[in-house]
Amino acid sequence: MKRVYMTTGLAFVLITIVFFAASATNFGTQASAQSPKPMKAKAFKHACTQAKAGYAACRALQSTTSVATPASQTQAGVTPNAQAPGASAPYSPANLAAAYKLPTSANVAQTVAIVDAYDDPNAESDLATYRSHFGLPACTSSNGCFRKVNQSGGTSYPAANSGWAGEISLDVDMVSAICNHCKILLVEANSSSLSDLGTAVNTAVSLGANEISNSYGGSQSSSDTSSCNAYYNHPGVAVTASSGDGGPAVESPADCPHVVAVGGTSLNSNGSETAWNTSSTEGAGGGCSSYITRPGWENNTLTGCAQRAVADVSAVADPNTGVYVYDSYQSGGWLQYGGTSASSPIIASVYALAGGVSGDAASIPWNKRANGCLFSVGGKSYAYQTGLGSPNGTGCF
Predict the structure, then answer these.
(1) What is the pLDDT confidence band of residue 50, given thresholds at 50, 70 and 90?
(2) How far apart are CA 393 and CA 397, in angstroms?
(3) What is the pLDDT of residues 11-44, one digit of tens each?
(4) In the prediction, which pLDDT does 158 show?
(5) CA pair distance 355, 361, nearest whole angstrom
(6) What is the pLDDT of residues 270-289, one digit of tens each?
(7) What is the DSSP letter of 14?
(8) Of 134, 169, 340, 358, which residue is most buried, by most CB within 10 angstroms?
(9) Of 51-55, 197-201, 247-251, 387-391, which range is least confident?
(10) Does 397 map to a domain?
């Protein structure tokens, strides 16, 4: 069974319970082991303001009030083969590992880069609070696990921004949640212009990132092909990008042919998962690109798109089935977050758990999808907002 949510203003309201039909495709399915636990409705706000042409907005949705401090946890004793998260939202690292059948202590030699705009002065200290609270190994600049640079690779950081600081906290916390032995490289762009953010992506590659998460997006334009080639074409590096939070529509850089476009789901406490689609203006992005040619590995029989289709894969993004984040910079400490800003670093970190990539990362789920290594979201083989599905282990990454 699953729960369906819709909003009135900013409040999420439970409206019905319907039966969940499992997919009969070759993909894995998420079975309903028990009824979802009741969740209190919360109000959420966009962490970043709407972007003008040539700029990007971060795709984080933040609870407007703090949440109770989560119970202290450790990774010991976690059973990652369960399909239910094991608790109701907001979800912890152990809950996410359980939902997506991920190993909880894989000691992989991978560096996951986070690219965002502006500075979060508290990024390292907030990261330490999150990791310590959930029993994750320390990740600091002194032990070589955490590094923060500007878009040129230096340490003269851009101006601080509270909205993007929340985005940064969400991103580094999700990398920590999924791949707790990965190194984290935070690259802060001078501004939210797509050119500055793209420059930061290239810097992340030059500094040795194996995976790069981009939790932001801007409007499609006729210049997308050139910017995709200039900033987001890095064979051997898994570059992910959020598909958007405004409902079905295509954004850049998620539309880039070598980027893994990450959509969003609603993840219930029993493991059932549906497309995150709160309303016509709030939910995961997705659709057919107006400018980007369809990559040869993308199956247009499934997508129905003559051009590039978005998304490729997905993970939890609905803020009402969201995740714990710790953010202290002009914010309330423990908060509940969602948006495809959550799903992008989750998927980047699943690529890291899989040991990195060679060649084109975006093609891998498409080429391996018949192996049962994806959960079909809502029983569908493909949908714009959720792509081919969510992780069922690391086999499709």
Answers:
(1) confident
(2) 9
(3) 333 333 333 333 333 333 333 333 344 444 579 9
(4) 98
(5) 12
(6) 999 999 999 888 999 999 99
(7) E
(8) 340
(9) 51-55
(10) no
- pLDDT for the residue 51: 82
**CATH number of domain containing 309:** 3.40.50.200
pLDDT of 41: 57
- The number of distinct structural domains making up the chain is 1
User: 0.90 exceeded by the pTM?
Assistant: no
Query: 123-133 vs 162-178: helix axis angle to the nearest 10?
Result: 40
89 neighbors 37 (Cβ within 8 angstroms): no
pLDDT tens figures, 346-370: 999 999 999 999 999 999 999 999 9
Q: Give the integer Cα–Cα distance in Å for 61 and 321.
A: 12
Strands 61-63 and 333-338: antiparallel
CA nearest neighbour of 252 among 66, 386, 51: 51
* H/E segment holding residue 324: strand 323-327
- pLDDT band, very low/low/confident/very high, at 83 (cuts 50, 70, 90): low
Domain residues for the domain of 78 are 2-391
Cα 250 to chain center, whole Å?
Answer: 16
Q: Which of 386, 375, 382, 299 is nearest to 340 (CA)?
A: 386
Q: What is the pLDDT of residue 31?
A: 35
Q: Is residue 396 part of a domain?
A: no
CA 251 to each of CA 17, 202, 212: distance values in angstroms, whole numbers, following the listed order: 32, 20, 17
Helix (H) or strand (E) holding 95: helix 93-99
Residue 245 lies in a domain: yes
Distance CA 354, CA 110 (A): 10
Structure tokens, 71: 């119970």
Please enumerate in sequence order all residues whose Cβ is within 8 A of that of 175, keeping only pairs 6 or more positions apart, or say none. Answer: 112, 114, 182, 184, 213, 345, 348, 349, 352
Helix, strand and coil percent figures for the chain, each rounded to 5 = 20, 30, 50
The values of phi and psi at residue 369, to 5°, are -60, -25
DSSP string, 206-269: HTT-SEEEE-EEEE--TTHHHHHHHHS--TTSEEEEE--SBSS--EETTTSTTSEEEEEEEE-T
- Amino acid at the residue 271: G
Q: Is residue 75 part of a domain?
A: yes
CB 123 within 8 A of CB 165: yes
